[in-house]
Amino acid sequence: MKGWEEEEEGVAGSSSYRFRHRRLMDSSPPADSGHSSHNGMPIMVSILAVVIVCTLLYCVYCWRWRKRNAVRRAQIESLRPLSNSDLPLMDLSSIYDATNHFSKENKLGEGGFGPVYRGVLGGGAEIAVKRLSARSRQGAAEFRNEVELIAKLQHRNLVRLLGCCVEKDEKMLIYEYLPNRSLDAFLFDSKRRAQLDWKMRQCIILGIARGLLYLHEDSCLKVIHRDLKASNVLLDNKMNPKISDFGMAKIFREEGNEVNTGHVVGTYGYMAPEYAMEGVFSVKSDVFSLGVLVLEILSGQRNGAMYLQNHQQTLIQDAWKLWSEDKAAEFMDPSLGGDYSKEEAWRCFHVGLLCVQESPELRPTMSNVVLMLISDQMQLPEPAQPPLFAARVKKAVVSASEFSLAMKTETTKTQSVNDVSISMIEPR
């Protein structure tokens, strides 16, 4: 019996010893715990830093987004008084219906202002709707100025604004729809260019000149367009030209000759040298643009980077060279096939060269331009050499940025590369 008890106590002691030993083993730290803690701390700090940075960036984004939306809402609200203007306000639902909710099939193009859509109103009238894009750099002030300016201008050679829409977050301009789109769609297309016979080109030149004369001298406001180019001349169903896109225009409310601005807007190839290099613009800046456009209509060529690449000089330099060498016929568009009045063509050529002279004082006024175009008896002065915008380029490839550098513009610039654009209109 005693032996059994001693054996039981031995077993109990052994069991107690194993239990204590197991507790000691469990409570003792692993051999490499210090090393693991040392490696884990930088990881935790890195994760925490990333979380803090991401949170801060998200907060900044939300703040800027709310601020931007608040500004846009304030701008939209500031446009409400437009209902008191002479221009009709159109409701958003009717425009949605007219454009089939801005379907892709009705999209005509896109520019700096935003996309342009064709629409058909309930009565069957066709319209063109310019819709301000959320990504557009244009603001409510420019939109208001465009509306107020065009509402006051009425001429057969200016595009007609039918109304506007300011509802919810939308800002839209509603124009008359011109089925033949813009002049550049014909002039610079190798297939469609042949549709422009000489009489049609002559009428387009004269129509543009008359529209510009109205802006400079005959309208209630003295307006400088500042972005006259082939894509900003629209054609109606009878191919009559209409000047469009007055977003870059300047209004002269006082008698003045020129303005110096540090912010140059326009399109390279059409900009007058004093404006491109010094920021000085006047009515003579538009006259220069008209001269470039006349030369483009005669030749069927665009005065741009591609022409400079292919000919190692600008279109106006080429025109001057051929005129000086009495080779004007070589400058004319081959698609005309020689089927034009040389006397009328040479007169247009002569007027175009007078308009692109380097000195603004030597360029004619728009009233003189129109008179020279319609008069067979008027003696025209000899043109001076046009400005040397670009030296001869020896490179095989000239990019658009290289072309802009070759134009030697040194002031702050905004290059217009879109077919429809609305920018800043400011009274003097």
UniProtKB/TrEMBL annotation:
Keywords, alphabetical: ATP-binding, Disulfide bond, Glycoprotein, Kinase, Membrane, Nucleotide-binding, Serine/threonine-protein kinase, Signal, Transferase, Transmembrane, Transmembrane helix
CDD domains on file: STKc_IRAK
PROSITE patterns: PROTEIN_KINASE_DOM, PROTEIN_KINASE_ST
Molecular function per GO: ATP binding; protein serine/threonine kinase activity
Gene3D superfamilies on file: Phosphorylase Kinase, domain 1, Transferase(Phosphotransferase) domain 1
Gene Ontology annotations for the cellular component aspect, listed alphabetically: plasma membrane
Reactions catalysed: L-threonyl-[protein] + ATP = O-phospho-L-threonyl-[protein] + ADP + H(+); L-seryl-[protein] + ATP = O-phospho-L-seryl-[protein] + ADP + H(+)
Transmembrane intervals: 43-63
Enzyme Commission number, as recorded: 2.7.11.1
Enzyme class, first EC level, given as a word: transferase
Entry keyword annotation includes Disulfide bond: yes
Domain Protein kinase residues, every copy: 102-389
Top-level taxon: Eukaryota
Protein name: non-specific serine/threonine protein kinase
